[in-house]
Design brief:
The chain has helices spanning 10-13, 35-56, 60-83, 89-119, 124-150, 165-181, 186-204, 229-239, 241-266; strands at 159-161, 209-211. By secondary structure, the protein is mainly α.
């Protein structure tokens, strides 16, 4: 009798064929999650736009609050994009344009509009000075953002070269808020406002290095008792928001020049011929 044919053995015939994975494929990420960081950026842009409109209407306290709200949204959009792995080149460019409006144009217009009501009492020269100072601030913010975008890949992430634009915007915004609440007027108040705005703009394009608070104590593990500092900080700010915020951001803006000056003063002068002495 003829031998029976063996049944087809797939394993014996194709031993090197890889086995297929029976586990289900991961579900694709929803497209809607990409909207979240961009919505936060839009909220920051809206806050800057609202600050401009409020300043034109004479609501300077609301304008200052809107700039600080823009700072909050601006700090969240990048972190949310990293947490959700949705960071894109489009989001980066959109965030930069939003920063220019919220931290470049809005603070300049807020300061200028606050001074417009007082410029009529003085010579027209002060009007030209105010126009130039606020325009200088806007240009400095644009240069600061452009420099940051072109040097992102080559700079130390722990430091910012020049005062960050959100911190710079907080200084004139908080000053106008203080001046509005305490009815600071006169030529002295106008001069201080222009000086504060000009110095903030100059620090943005300076070569001073400011801490980015990345990879340090604020981002690492700390003792649980240090967590009490967070609510205490908010309580401290709530006592007098404009004055406290002006003090905090003013101290941060002056910290880098103060450190640079301190190092220069501590540097010992080089005595000629001292290197050749035994």
């Amino acid at each position: 009798m003829p031998a029976l044919a063996r049944p087809y053995d797939r394993t014996a015939m194709e031993p090197d064929e890889p086995e297929t994975d029976a586990s289900p494929a991961p579900r694709p990420r929803r497209r809607g999650v990409f909207l979240l960081p961009n919505l936060l950026t839009t909220a920051a842009l809206f806050s800057g736009f609202y600050a401009i409109v409020a300043a034109i209407d004479g609501n300077f306290d609301r304008a200052a609050v809107a700039i600080f709200a823009a700072m909050l949204f601006d700090g969240l959009d990048g972190r949310v994009a990293r947490w959700t792995h949705t960071a894109t080149l489009f989001g980066k460019e959109y965030d930069s344009l939003s920063d220019m409006v919220s931290f470049g144009i809005a603070p300049a217009i807020v300061v200028y509009q606050w001074g417009v009501a007082r410029l009529a009492e003085y010579k027209a020269t002060w009007g030209r000075i105010g126009w130039l100072v606020t325009f200088f601030y806007a240009v400095a913010a644009a240069l600061r953002l452009a420099r940051f975008n072109t040097r992102t890949a080559s700079v130390d992430k722990r430091y910012f070269e020049g005062l960050p634009s959100p911190s710079a915007a907080a200084i004139p915004a908080a000053f106008v808020w203080v001046a509005h609440d305490y009815d600071l007027g006169g030529l002295n108040g106008l001069v201080i406002a222009f000086v504060v705005t000009g110095v903030a703009g100059a620090l943005m394009v300076s070569r001073f290095y400011y801490s980015s608070f990345k990879g340090g104590v604020l981002t690492g593990r700390v003792r649980f008792t240090y967590a009490i500092l967070i609510p205490l900080t908010f309580v401290f700010i709530s006592l007098n928001p404009p004055a406290v915020l002006l003090s905090i951001f003013g101290a941060f803006a002056l910290s880098a020049p103060a450190v640079w000056l301190w190092r220069r003063l501590r540097r010992r002068p080089v005595v000629p011929g001292a290197a050749g002495r035994s």
